[in-house]
Amino acid sequence: MTTHAPAPPGAPANAPGQARDAVPRPRRTPARAASVFLSTHPRTRLALLLSAPLFWLGIVYIVALVLLLVTAFWSVDSFTGEISQTWTLDNIITVVTGSLYQTVTLRTLGVALAVTLIDVLLALPIAFFMAKVASPRMQRILVIAVLTPLWASYLVKAYAWRSVLSQDGILEWLVAPFGGHTPGYGLPATIITLSYLWLPYVILPIYAGLERVPDSLLEASADLGGRTWPTIRLVVFPLVLPAIIAGTIFSFSLSLGDYITVNIVGGANQMLGNLVYTNVGAANNLPLASAIALIPIVIIFGYLFLVRRTGALDNL
Amino acid sequence: MRLSRLSRTTLGVVTGLILFLVYVPLLVVLVNSFSTSTSLTWPPPGFTLEWWGRAFQSAGAMEAVATSVQIAVVATIISLLLGTLISIALQRFSFFGRDAISLLIILPIALPGIITGIALNNFFRTIMGVPLSIWTVVIAHATFCIVTVFNNVIARLRRQGTNLEEASADLGAGVWTTFRLVTFPQLRSALLAGGLLAFALSFDEIIVTTFTAGSGVTTLPIFILNNMFRPNQAPVVSVIAVVLVVVSIIPIYIAQRLSGSEQQRR
């Protein structure tokens, strides 16, 4: 509306000078002044946005991680149980040379690798079906079906396998007529349960990766005479590899640190997490626990370092 | 590549089989919650509603639920605030160290929970001299919940671009007004989705919780773990498990509705 148009009859009379003020001038409040200052100083804006989250993550998390590293070089006074802050390599030496720690590290690594392998093998066909074969409607249903167990509690799922695998459980009941037996509680049960727990975490990134492979590439391959297997091996697999590795980071890292599943279905077996747990709680030896915790940290950073070139970290 | 009918069917069957295996254990827990056997015997020797009654009268379980809800609510609020701030910073600005910060945000879930747990336990007890309490759990949970909010909000910011915010600024709106009337309404459903995930993550967390909870703090997962191995409590644990799965359908439904309505808008 312009100020020169004559006011229509019936409309409130507007003097020409007043219409210009229809948008009131902003009042000079402190909030307004701050806003003006911020919109002309983007760096200040950035600093304000970053300060609180970085303070939190920096203080709570990074400092805690660094201090964990430092604590591994301290020791515990055997009389008082107090931590004495004198530098010593004893804990590191114990952990690196102790046969208990070597065995448990190897066992944990073996379990984590087996779980990762099983999960990738299970996730590939299901993710491929979801992304490339299923109709859009079916796809939606399958995504929900895969996601739902993710929301069910971790403990509930581990507990579910405890009842499935028990000596009087459903598995024994199913396979006993054929002369089979449940594996009972032990390392195989741990591997099964962990694979079950992390399967959705592996399916989802692989599915997202396959979704991003354009169908036109598959058609081009077919037009050029590529049969199914060569196409999967030479076209699909290289494109999806970062997504697969992203999935393995989850299953590998989550398995390495787990100690509760092994408590529930693992029988008397121990993993690295159990050793850390006992040393924090019952043994009250935080420095030794910190030294043990360094083993998974080193393994995972090594793994992240190995796969960083593949672009897997952008697929997390 | 054209998949033959046979390979399509095979893939479908394999998918169905895996999904079946995924759901069987959950169904077994459902049946066990009605079983008269206290030792997870299959097939159930008989059926009873006793455990369902016992579970809802169990003061310990109810208190544990209340503790878990309190922790999850506070941790979610903190992670919503921090996650929004940091995703705006990382999406709307480019600066030195941006990649390092985004790695720092995923680190709490990329490293095993036991490392986060023991690092914080050591930090609180040995370094700060703070006794473990419900607040140490909240701090720990908020730390790893930031990433879920961050993922949702940054994806939304990337998609919506800066056009509307610039238009708002051109029309004379200040920084606050633009955030309140333009940016925030567009972020609302992303915040809800991220907040739901953060809540679920915190509600379910057990490993970090065991390392950071004071002696009197019993969250629901800790309660379940404590009672799982007691013979007479096992069926009660089954009941709680079933209730948890059923209740978790609500956030899944909301999250699906949110993402569904977004797909229609695009």
How are the secondary structure elements laid out?
The complex is a heterodimer of chains A (316) and B (266).
Chain A: H1 16-19, H2 30-40, H3 42-71, E1 75-76, E2 83-84, H4 90-97, H5 99-133, H6 136-151, H7 154-165, H8 170-175, H9 187-211, H10 215-223, H11 228-257, H12 260-265, H13 272-280, H14 286-307
Antiparallel strand pairs in A: 1-2
Chain B: H1 5-32, H2 50-57, H3 59-92, H4 98-110, H5 113-128, H6 134-160, H7 163-170, H8 175-204, H9 207-212, H10 220-228, H11 234-265
Helix pairs in contact in B: 1-11, 2-11, 3-6, 3-8, 3-10, 4-6, 6-8, 7-8, 8-11
Main sheet makeup of chain A: 2 strands, antiparallel
Strand content of chain B: under 5%
**What is the gyration radius of chain A calculated from CA atoms?**
30 Å
Mean pLDDT of chain B, to the nearest integer, reads 85
Overall pLDDT confidence of chain A: 83
Number of helices of chain A: 14
Separation, N- and C-terminal Cα atoms of chain B: 30 Å
Q: Main sheet of chain A: which strands, in order across?
A: 1-2
Assign the CATH superfamily of chain B: MetI-like
Specify the oligomeric state. heterodimer
Helix content of chain A: over 70%
Could you give me the name of the CATH homologous superfamily of the largest domain in chain A? MetI-like
**Extended strand count of chain B:** 0
CATH top level of the largest domain in chain A is: Mainly Alpha
Topology order of chain B in helix (H) and strand (E) letters: HHHHHHHHHHH
Going by helix content, strand content and strand pairing, the class of chain A is mainly alpha
- What is the approximate shape of chain B? globular
Number of helices of chain B: 11
The number of distinct β-strands of chain A equals: 2
Gap between N and C termini of chain A, in Å? 53 Å
